[in-house]
Every structure is written in C-alpha cells, then in structure tokens.
Design brief:
heterodimer; A: alpha+beta; Alpha-Beta Plaits; four-stranded antiparallel β-sheet; 6 helices; B: alpha/beta; Rossmann fold; six-stranded parallel β-sheet; 23 helices; 22 strands; 37% helix; 19% strand; globular; binds thiamine diphosphate
C-alpha cells in the first residue's frame, strides 16, 4: 500500500502524561512522527495534538482507532492535505553584518513575504510562515548569508469539514449524562 | 484534574476526616473489595498501616513476590469476574508487577494495581526506590494515574475501578506518593459514573444486525468462532441461545474455553496453533465466519493471507480498534457481546446444519485416530501429559477450575480438559507468561473457595514462581498442583526438534528434588512415575482436604500435535 502524508488531529483531556500515551501508539509500531504540535482547542479543557505522519491509509486508520481507544482521548481524526488548511512557522537567525553586506537581503525577505522580527548588533531573526516547501525555499536562499540557527514548528491544521468540536463534545457529554 | 467527570448524586458516606492511606483502604472497601494481594515496602507503608485496622473487612494476602501478587489478582479476577486488586511499594515493587499487568492488558483482565511512590517533592530526583512507574506501565495499562494529594484519592480509585471493569476490561494503575498517603483530608466516597472521553460500549446498530442476520440466514456453511468476549460480557446464556437457534458449529479460542460446555453438540473444539483439526481446517471451508468476542490473534489465524479468504466475516466485538485489524470484515457488529447476541438471535432463522456439522465430526475422527487416542492411551510405557489431564477429568467430572502455566502442558490441558461451567479455564493466552499458574491458581481458589482449583504446570514454569508455595503454606489455600515433569523446557524443545535440527540449546532442565522442596512448605506431595499409579494418585489428590502437590514424570520428548507451524495456513494443520 502506498504511503501518503496524513495529518492527525487528536483531541484529548488536559492531563499530564497523555502526550506520552499518544506517542507510544506510534513508536510501538515504529511509525516516525514527522511533526507534532500541541495546544489548547476552542473548547475549555480540551487539548489537541496535530501529528503528521507518512503512512499507508490502512495504517493511519488503525492508528486512529488505537488513539481513540485511549481512555482520555476524546476523538481522533485524520486528513489528507486537501481536506485541511494548514500552516507552519519557521525562524531564521543570521549574522547582521552578513545581511548588511549582501545586496539581496531585502529583496529575498520581500519576495518570500517574510518578516524581520529582531535586529541586534550581531544577529537578525527572520520569520516566515508557510508550508514546508516555502519555508525551505527561504532557507535555501538565506543559506549563503550563513544561517546561525533555524527552527521550524510542527504543522498545525484546521479541517475543512464543518463538524465542530463543541458539538462532538456536547454529544459525548449528553451520552454520559443519560447513564 | 479538571476533566469533565460526572459523579453520582448519591453520596454513599458522610465526609469523614482521614489520612490518604486510610482513604485508599476505605475507597477499596467502598468499591466492594474484600480481598487483595500484595507486598509491603517503604513507600506503601502508610497504606499497610491503615489495612491493619480493617483486616476483617479487607483481607490482604501476602505473596512472596509482587509478580505473585499481580498474577494472584488476575486469577481471582478471571475466576470470579470481579476486579482483582494488588498493591506494591515503589521502585522494585512496582516494576515486579509489570509482567502481570502486561498479561492482564493483553488478556483483558480487570485489575486495579496500587503502588506507593516517593514523596512528591522527590519526584524526578532519582530518590531511593523511585521509578517512573507511570511511564513504565503506560504501554501496558488501560489507564494509569499518579496521585500527589490525598483529596484526589477517592476519585482516582473510583475511576480506576470504573475503567478496569467497563468496556473491554483491563488493568489500571494508581501510583500514590507517600506524602499523599500521610495527608489528612475529608473523605467522601462518590461512585464514578463515566467520562466524556471514554465510551465503554457502542450502541447497537440495527442495520448492521440486519445485514449480519441476512448473511447468516442464507449461509450454507456458517461457522462461529468465540472468545473471551462471551465470558467478559457474561453472555454465555445468550451465546448458547444464538448457536442453538441458528444451529451453527462453534469453536472456541483459548480464552473462550469453558464459555460453553465442552460436550455441547455444537462445540467443535479449539482454534489455533495447537487447536483441533476440524475447526482449523473448516475455517478455510466455511462460507460465513461469525467471530464473537475474539480478536483474530496470530496464533489463531496462522498466515493471514490464506485465512478464511472464501468466507464473509461477521465480527461481534466491543472494541472498535479490533474491527479489520487483522481480518477484513463484511459486517462489524459493535457492542457488548450480550446485547449483540440477544439482538442477533431474534433475527436469525431457526436452523440445523446437520451435514455441515457432520463434516466437522468426520475430521474429528481423523484427529482421534492419529493424535488423541495415542495421547490419552499411549502405546508406550512413558506417561503422556494427555493421560494425566484425562485422569483429572475422570475425577473432577468437568467441575474444577483448571489453571495452567505456559508450554506443552498448557496446550494439552487446554485441549483435553473438560468443562461444565464458564470461567473454568484460566491460562495466560496473549502474553504466554511462564510463572503465571501457581499464583493465579491461589487467586482463583481464594475467589472461588467452593470450587476445586487445579494448577497444571511444567517443571520450567513451576520454578519461575515456585516461591508462592510459601503463600499457599501461610494462607492454607487448598490448591491442587500438578507438575508435569519432562525435564525439558518442553515447548521450546519441541520447536528445536521440528525447526532447529534437534539442537537442544539450553532447554534441558536439571531439576531439584521437587518433593523435598514442596514438603519443606508443609504441603502434602506425591510423585507418579508409572501408569498404574496415576489414577489412584489423582483421586488421592482430589480427596485431600488441603493443598496437594502431584508430580508426574512424563515423556521427555513428547510433542504436542496437531500443529499449525508458524507461517503456515490453518488448513495446513499437521496431525504429526
Ligand atoms: C517468562 C517466559 N519466558 C520464556 C518463555 C518461552 N517459553 C515458552 S514455553 C517454554 C517452555 C516451558 O517449559 P515447561 O514449563 O517445562 O513446560 P512444558 O513446555 O515442558 O510443558 C518457554 C521457555 C515464556 N513463555 N515465558
């Protein structure tokens, strides 16, 4: 079966150690996590992990079921790239003197729609949001200036389907209340 | 802890000031626990101190090793259907529980394990006997939680029991720091009613049931495979009603053993690597395969790419993650087996499949001729494992609980033991944990004191938890221990013979004098080396009031057959 890039959104209770339980599902199957981002969601006390993996449809489906099986995981979903709106953020630290010496720095920043976040005597920090290919393209162009430090965030993603987390959570809570 | 947890409006008790340790004990009592297994140590001492005051209500059994405690709790849980409880100290005490927890996880046994932990201000400092038991146990628990404040205890324990016993049961672990055990607070017990992130079972989907029933009703050669799900959901009666109405031949997995009487006319025997010939063969002959509360373990399926490809598969299962995990289903019926079976039985036609059932019985004759007759009535002077089990059957009449260890004797005990009642076979199926039997048998006997409990163990596995003879001695638990001594790690030796050119690397056992050892523990013993002594010795053992140890010298190089070799298809099952 062909491997593809999948973005998983895992909604969980806000609980110490849960990230470990979530990642164990992947490591146990020797699945490499390409990126992972954790944050709150729009619902109070519900956290979400956005996890990107490169796997077959069959594997990702099984992994999502295993995730949902965890007691404190509320729901888990997976999407292909065309079903989500996603973004990443990259930061680049460069020597200020090199940027000043070169002619193209301003042009590069402009053409990539990047931003200068900080300028200090010895370094400058540039920020770029975009898909990996885009932040990578800027990386390649800035390379000649001598990149001192580079970091890219995990992907975060919003799904296109209109089902809201609030409605899912409400439905689950109603079920419990009926018991 | 700010998750949405809906608590019962019924507060059972008035708030009462007590220590965290007293709260642990009180919460266990409030959850209905009257028996637990464990081993003390520094980080759990406050709880032991609290136990001292309530020994009449909550009996604690001191095992000789924490592995013994957890296996005993498993045996108790599997024999009674209640939640097994065990307790240990931090560090080595906690890590010694892990094998049993992993075993309970894979065999879906409800357990609540409580471990002491170092003071909360010492967490992460490599303090004396600190180990990250939450981290270590995470992959093998259904849920775990670390308590650092006394006020969390009632909820943590109530939640632990709820999770352990609901849905697909499993082990949970609650780790409690020592300061939380000392801390005083106002205890109030509240029954835990559920949480939004955990739905123990799905509601039945009527359309799936209808599709499943249609398939079953039009099947010419339907075949039922059933597992422990039937036992766990207490659906034995509903299961029987279902197969009797639909007239479908049914085979059990190892964990499904005893969910139906052994000699029920539709029971066609055991699936799997060392299961019976007919059910393995017929898996690849049937047209509709109905799996009930089983999970298509690789020991059951053999080569998946050649498993039941001709059949339409219906899977009745509580755990959505099991659907299509190993075998693609035509219809998945999600839900508790009891509900699903009840609903499905209403929809199926009353039928008999006489010719199809007879085909099973014909294959059974072949197995009888080539394997079973020789195993139960050997033509050679050496004793076989099968004839010992057969002799036990004669006396127990199928009313005993049989507990096994892991290896050849396990397969033989599973193949030949007879059962009249559910929960009569307790064996480590998924994990195959040597050392499981002796402590599990203790737990089973304590849980079901009116049942005869027979522990069938190999000479290898016996020595893995032999120290639990001390528990038997001290607690005067009348378990009957049968060690089938072949002076080999028999099952491994069998594989060496068949697949490794008889290179018997490290499988010969030079054994001590078991008789002397067991006598040292004050347990009555007997050793059988000749066939003519066997039946009398077994009767004597069964008639004996207290614990009893029977050692039988069996053939050193006997093999267990039939066998589906690894990588082979179930239809390639070998009779010799
Ligand atoms: C803890 C553990 N270690 C190793 C094994 C691998 N193993 C499976 S069966 C077996 C041999 C068991 O020998 P014995 O207890 O004498 O029983 P027999 O097969 O001879 O009946 C071994 C070593 C295991 N299942 N569990």
């Amino acid at each position: 079966m062909m491997n593809k890039r999948y973005t998983l959104s895992v909604f969980t209770e806000d609980r110490v150690g849960l990230l470990n339980r979530v990642t164990i599902i992947f490591t146990r199957r020797k699945i490499n996590i390409e990126s992972i981002a954790a944050s709150e969601s729009e619902v109070e006390n519900v956290h979400r992990y956005t996890i990107v993996i490169n796997e077959s449809a069959d594997t990702v489906n099984k992994v999502v079921l295993q995730l949902e099986k965890q007691v404190e995981v509320i729901r888990a979903f997976y999407h292909e790239d065309d079903a989500i709106v996603y973004q990443e953020l990259a930061l680049y630290k460069l020597p200020t003197e090199m940027l000043l010496a070169g002619q193209d720095a301003e042009k590069i920043v402009r053409s990539h729609h990047a931003r200068v976040l900080a300028v200090e005597a010895d370094f400058t920090v540039i920020e770029k949001t975009g898909h990996k290919e885009e932040t990578q393209a800027l990386f390649d162009e800035l390379k000649p200036f001598g990149i001192l430090e580079f970091v890219r965030s995990g992907r975060i993603a919003i799904s296109k389907p209109m089902r809201t987390l609030t409605s899912i959570v409400n439905e689950l809570e109603n079920k419990i209340n009926q018991n | 802890m700010k998750t949405l947890e809906i608590e019962s409006k019924l507060v059972v008790k008035e708030a009462k000031s007590m220590s965290g340790a007293q709260a642990v004990v009180q919460a266990l009592i409030d959850e209905g626990t009257d028996l637990m297994f464990g081993y003390p140590g520094g980080a759990i001492m406050p709880v032991y101190n609290a136990l001292y005051d309530v020994e009449d209500k909550l009996h604690h059994v001191l095992t000789r090793h924490e592995q013994g405690a957890v296996h005993a709790a498993q045996g108790y849980a599997r024999a009674t259907g209640k939640v097994g409880v065990c307790i240990a100290t931090s560090g080595p005490g906690a890590t010694n529980l892990i094998t049993g927890i992993a075993d309970a996880q894979i065999d879906s046994t409800p357990l609540v394990c409580i471990t002491g932990q170092v003071h909360s201000h010492l967490l992460g400092t490599d303090a004396f006997q600190e180990t990250d038991v939450i981290g270590i146990s995470m992959p093998v628990t259904k849920w775990n939680y670390q308590v650092t404040k006394a006020e969390e205890i009632p909820m943590a324990i109530a939640k632990a029991f709820y999770i352990a016993r609901s849905g697909k049961p499993g082990p949970v672990l609650v780790d409690i720091t020592k300061d939380a055990q000392f801390e005083m607070f106002d205890y109030q017990y509240k029954e835990f009613k559920g949480m939004r992130s955990y739905l123990p079972k799905s509601e039945l989907d009527e359309s799936c049931l209808v599709t499943a029933a249609k398939l079953i009703n039009s099947a010419k050669k339907p075949f039922v495979l059933f597992g422990q799900g039937v036992v766990l959901s207490k659906a034995e009666k509903e299961f029987k009603a279902f197969i009797e109405k639909s007239g479908i031949p049914s085979a059990w997995t190892i964990l499904g053993l005893s969910a139906l009487e052994s000699d029920h006319y539709l029971n066609v025997g055991m699936l799997g690597m060392h299961g019976n010939y007919a059910p393995n063969k017929m898996t690849n002959e049937c047209d509709v395969l109905i799996a009930v509360g089983m999970r298509f373990d690789d020991r059951v399926t053999g080569d998946l790419s050649r498993y039941a490809k001709q059949a339409k598969v219906i899977h009745l299962e509580i755990d959505p993650a099991e659907i299509d995990k190993n075998v693609k289903t035509e219809v998945a019926v999600l839900g508790d087996a009891k509900d699903s079976l009840l609903a499905l039985t209403k929809l199926v036609d009353k039928k008999q499949h006489d010719d199809w059932l007879r085909a099973f019985r014909d294959l059974e004759q072949e197995e009888l001729k080539i394997v079973i007759n020789e195993e139960l009535n050997p033509s050679t002077p050496v004793l076989s494992m099968g004839e010992v089990i057969n002799s036990v059957n004669q006396v127990s009449k199928g009313d005993a609980i049989v507990v096994t260890d892991v290896g050849q004797h396990q397969m033989v005990a599973c193949r030949y033991s007879k059962f009249n009642e559910t929960r009569s076979m307790i064996t480590s199926g998924g994990l195959g944990t040597m050392g499981f039997c002796l402590p599990a048998a203790i737990g089973a006997k304590m849980g079901m004191p009116n049942k005869e409990v027979i522990a069938v163990i190999g000479d290898g596995g016996f020595q893995m938890t032999i120290q639990e003879l001390g528990t038997i001695f001290q607690s005067k638990t009348p378990v009957k221990i049968v060690v089938l001594n072949n002076e080999f790690l028999g099952m491994v030796r069998q594989w060496q013979e068949l697949f490794f050119d008889k290179r018997y690397a490290s499988t010969t056992m030079v054994n001590p004098d078991f008789q002397a050892i067991v006598k040292g523990y004050g347990i009555e013993t007997c050793k059988v080396t000749k066939r003519e002594e066997l039946n009398l010795a077994v009767s004597k053992m069964m008639d004996h009031e207290g614990a009893y140890f029977l050692e039988v010298k069996v053939g050193k190089e006997n093999n267990v057959f039939p066998m589906v070799p690894t990588g082979a298809s179930v239809s390639e099952i070998r009779l010799k």
